[in-house]
């Protein structure tokens, strides 16, 4: 393993403490807009700056790609970071946001961590070694019927004013399931598939930093990660994560 997972956990948990400090002082939080519907806060910037500094010092051989600061010069092997996935939830004082950190080496995600500071849930995975929640192994649900399943999705496409806005797709799938959720953090949503809280998740028009860590965690927990046609792989523009048993039932509805 090219990194020490306990070191990664320490760094990510410290980043979570920084985020929580801002979260507890929302009235003083500086909020700006990258686009009409895309927020960025001083918390996003502070958390990413900490992660970039700490990870670069610990592992100077790897580049860095953060949602807020962009890409370093060397991107062949890199940290892929979303400092606060679910910024809108964060600014509203909701608990549904997370910190996502993945390590990609030569195009392959080999380690990932997603931390939900508000409930102190730390998800992690290493390629070929399994997935964990707070140090305990996790696995996807055993649900075999879409009609009995809990599904989750998101609407980044609406934020981008796209014609294919997921609304028709959501209506088709929602009518075939028992429960529907929209939490607002794709990284957290995917991890909830990994530990069986949710049976399937899909979204479109995301970025790699939204899904890289979560996708590895889900795969290591037994999930299928595909595009909307069932092609295996991490496709941020069309990502479908299922417990595997529901893939054949949900694909025709995509």
Q: What does this entry show, briefly?
A:
By secondary structure, the chain is α+β, with helices and mostly antiparallel strands. Helices cover 31% and strands 29% of the residues. The protein has 8 helices and 15 strands.
Task: Outline the structure in words.
The model has no long low-confidence stretch (mean pLDDT 93). It is globular, with a radius of gyration of 17 Å. With 254 residues, the chain is α+β, with helices and mostly antiparallel strands. It has two domains: 5-137, Fructose-1,6-Bisphosphatase, Chain A, domain 1 (2-Layer Sandwich); 146-253, D-Maltodextrin-Binding Protein, domain 2 (3-Layer(aba) Sandwich), CATH 3.40.190.80. 31% of the residues lie in helices and 29% in strands.
What attributes characterize this protein structure?
alpha+beta, Fructose-1,6-Bisphosphatase, Chain A, domain 1, 2 domains, 8-stranded mixed β-sheet, 5-stranded mixed β-sheet
């Amino acid at each position: 393993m090219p990194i020490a997972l306990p070191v990664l956990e320490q760094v990510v948990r410290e980043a979570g403490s920084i985020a929580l400090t801002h979260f507890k002082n929302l009235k003083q939080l500086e909020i700006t807009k990258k686009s009409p519907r895309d927020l960025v806060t001083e918390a996003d910037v502070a958390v990413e700056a900490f992660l970039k500094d700490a990870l670069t010092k610990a592992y100077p051989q790897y580049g860095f790609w953060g949602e807020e600061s962009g890409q370093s010069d060397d991107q062949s092997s890199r940290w892929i970071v979303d400092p606060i996935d679910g910024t809108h939830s964060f600014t509203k004082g909701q608990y549904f946001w997370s910190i996502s950190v993945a390590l990609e080496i030569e195009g392959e995600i080999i380690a990932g961590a997603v931390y939900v500071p508000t409930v102190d849930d730390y998800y992690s995975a290493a390629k070929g070694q399994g997935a964990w929640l707070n140090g305990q192994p996790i696995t996807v649900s055993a649900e075999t019927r879409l009609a009995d399943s809990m599904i989750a999705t998101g609407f980044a496409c609406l934020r981008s004013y796209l014609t294919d806005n997921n609304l028709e797709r959501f209506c088709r799938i929602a009518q075939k399931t028992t429960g529907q959720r929209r939490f607002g953090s794709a990284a957290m949503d995917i991890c909830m598939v990994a530990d069986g809280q949710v049976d399937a998740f899909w979204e479109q028009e995301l970025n790699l930093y939204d899904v890289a860590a979560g996708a590895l965690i889900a795969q290591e927990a037994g999930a299928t990660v595909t595009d909307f046609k069932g092609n295996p792989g991490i496709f941020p523009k069309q990502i479908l994560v299922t417990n595997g048993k529901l893939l054949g039932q949900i694909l025709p509805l995509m």
